[in-house]
Design goal:
Layout lengths: L13 H25 L4 H9 L3 H24 L1 H9 L5 H22 L25 H17 L3 H9 L4 H38 L3 H47 L8 H17 L31 H22 L1
């Protein structure tokens, strides 16, 4: 899972931490403060509350706001791998399993449809695993983009990307590591902002519902937060595409550098190279000697194409279920406020 070793790239630089995490966290904390003080984005009431505070109370409130933003940004930075895995579609539970199966089925059908097109549009096929490996599909676009990048060295070179990447990364040149760090930062920023927007919608709409405020404010806060979260997720996809492409390039251009660092000579043929990497990965991962006569079957060989599953008929991606749930909750909340 590519998301599992995204953390092997460098940590966010101070400037990126400031722009991508601290400032959004500060905006989130300020917005939540206005909502809670004004009972649903009543800016006038929030300003009157602020003006009614003494100077020392304002200073303490400002310090508390900065501390809360810093703690929130640090928490987002520490949880970036878990957040990425969540958006990739690594879920558990009965309801999550049903959503996972439906999302995987939708993306498999879409990938099959793209393969039937004579010319791939905008490299769309590179955003999916091979259709002959159905077990590699994820229920979200982000998961499939990162999974396809992880699958690339496995299929092409019989190389376990998760095992090789921490070692390969150490010998990458500075321009490559800088490009990887920048793409990773864009990915993390988009996902972190998506989490903050969705959390703002939950807090804001929950406050309006608790205070029995206008139903219009409830819909504005809830649907607005969901829409902003979706836009942030879409921006994270752009960073994921760039990051995945950089990962492929790193394996293509610098795998021989790793071989030389290990004191070996590069293989002379593609077949020898596939056998070399497979034996080396078995040694690193399981401790099996490289000169062992019989090894487990290679995982890089594509499996036969699966038979179509006629039981999965709902033509919706996971985002479709997200919007359906968001709309249903918004209507239910607005009706409860209107009937009160």
């Amino acid at each position: 899972m590519l998301g599992a070793f995204l953390g092997q790239t460098p940590g966010l630089l101070d400037r990126r931490f400031l722009l991508h995490l601290l400032l959004p966290s500060l905006g989130f904390c300020l917005s939540v403060s206005v909502v809670l003080a004004g009972s649903g984005l009543n800016v006038g009431q929030a300003l009157r509350t602020w003006e009614g505070m003494s100077g020392s109370a304002r200073a303490l409130a400002g310090v508390a706001l900065l501390l809360a933003a810093g703690l929130l940004a640090s928490a987002l930075s520490g949880c970036r791998t878990a957040i990425c895995r969540l958006f990739e579609g690594y879920w558990s539970g009965f309801a999550a399993g049903a959503a996972l199966r439906q999302g995987v089925a939708w993306h498999r059908r879409r990938c099959d449809a793209l393969h039937r097109v004579p010319v791939s549009r905008d490299g769309a096929l590179s955003r999916y695993p091979l259709p002959t490996r159905p077990e590699d599909f994820r229920p979200t676009r982000l998961g499939n983009v990162l999974r396809s990048a992880e699958q690339y060295p496995q299929v092409r070179y019989s190389m376990d990307a998760v095992v090789v990447w921490p070692r390969l990364y150490q010998i990458l040149p500075d321009p490559m590591t800088a490009a990887l760090a920048a793409a990773r930062a864009d990915l993390d920023a988009g996902l972190g902002l998506s989490v903050l927007c969705l959390l703002f919608g939950v807090v804001g709409a929950g406050d309006v519902l608790w205070e029995r405020g206008p139903w219009s404010w409830f819909l504005l806060l809830w649907w607005g937060g969901c829409f902003a979260a979706y836009l942030a997720y879409r921006s994270a996809l752009a960073g994921a595409h760039v990051y995945a492409q950089h990962v492929r390039v790193a394996f293509d251009l610098h795998r021989y550098d790793l071989i030389r660092q290990l004191g070996d000579e590069p293989p002379s043929s593609p077949e020898e190279e596939r056998d070399y990497w497979y034996r080396l990965c078995q040694f690193w991962h399981r401790g099996i000697p490289r000169d062992h006569v019989q090894l487990p079957a290679s995982a890089g060989t594509p499996a036969p194409a699966p038979a179509p599953d006629d039981t999965l008929r709902i033509p919706l991606p996971v985002s479709g279920y997200f919007w359906t749930l968001a709309a249903a909750l918004g209507v239910a909340g607005a009706l409860s406020l209107g009937l009160y």
